[in-house]
Amino acid sequence: MHYYRYENAEVSCCYKYLMFSYNIIFWLAGAAFIAIGFWAWSEKGVLLDLTQVTRIHGFDPVWVVLVVGGVTFILGFAGCVGALRENICLLKFFSGLIGFIFFLELTAAVLAFVFQDPLRDWLSDFFLNNIKGYREDIDLQNLIDSLQRLNNCCGAQGPNDWNRNVYFNCTTENPSREKCGVPFSCCLSDPADMVVNTQCGYDIRSKKENIWSSAIYTKGCIPALEAWLPRNIYIVAGVFIVISLLQVWCGLAMLCGNPCSVISVLTGAAVKDCSGSILRLVRQQSDWFFSSPSLFI
């Protein structure tokens, strides 16, 4: 294969620095996420004793922060350096990673739509498993409290799911003051309250179920999520479409900002001058197609 060089290969400085500025935001955001993740671990003493990561019975939200931060940092770095230096390898990597993430998101959306019942069961089991570790990790505790407050729910399927937690179960062997209760995030909220009553859920499940609704939320978080999603399906779909379009735009923009990038991706050639290169590329591929005898046998 022959490599061709043409004139006028320069990329607009305005475009180059626009892409650089766009990606440096993600680079810095990724670094901030990583810093926040390690700070959260240091506050919990995980950095001094890494075995704590495996001893937690529930999900540690810090992992999400670190993974998102790591991916964002790598994308931002590749985008910044690739745009600034017009580095074909980094531009390929950036576009490829964006495409891979987009493919994963699309696959997850399709699988979630097709396998709704297994997904519902998995979410319920996931929530129940994390109820067990509610008091073991402050970040997990805050996450569950936030979910229950925002969705006006309690437990996965209902308040009795808190029997799975050693502090809230109703067994006679439980010495905890929270025995047969629920976390404060399950309590009905009163906007007039200036101070959160963290003991509002104590002993509530030792009473008759017909009076629970006067003090706590009785709907589980999984049914609450199922009720919330149809009401907000257009918002969810709109957010997904906007994110997807941004990802596709970023991937194509990083390649198409310099025509050489596209030609290099298609041919593997280190092309620097690209005036008329698309026509030349089409001519090359046409010559190869019609000259290959194996295609017509």
From TrEMBL:
One of its GO terms (cellular component) is plasma membrane. It is found in: Cell membrane; Membrane. CDD domains: TM4SF9_like_LEL (cd03159). The chain crosses the membrane at residues 20-42, 62-84, 96-115, 233-256. Gene3D superfamilies: Tetraspanin. Pfam families: Tetraspanin (PF00335). It comes from the Eukaryota. Keywords: Cell membrane, Disulfide bond, Glycoprotein, Membrane, Transmembrane, Transmembrane helix. Disulfide bonds join C153-C186, C154-C170. InterPro entries: Tetraspanin/Peripherin, Tetraspanin_animals, Tetraspanin_CS, Tetraspanin_EC2_sf. It is a multi-pass membrane protein. Belongs to the tetraspanin (TM4SF) family. This is Tetraspanin. It comes from Atractosteus spatula (Alligator gar). The lineage of its organism: Eukaryota, Metazoa, Chordata, Craniata, Vertebrata.
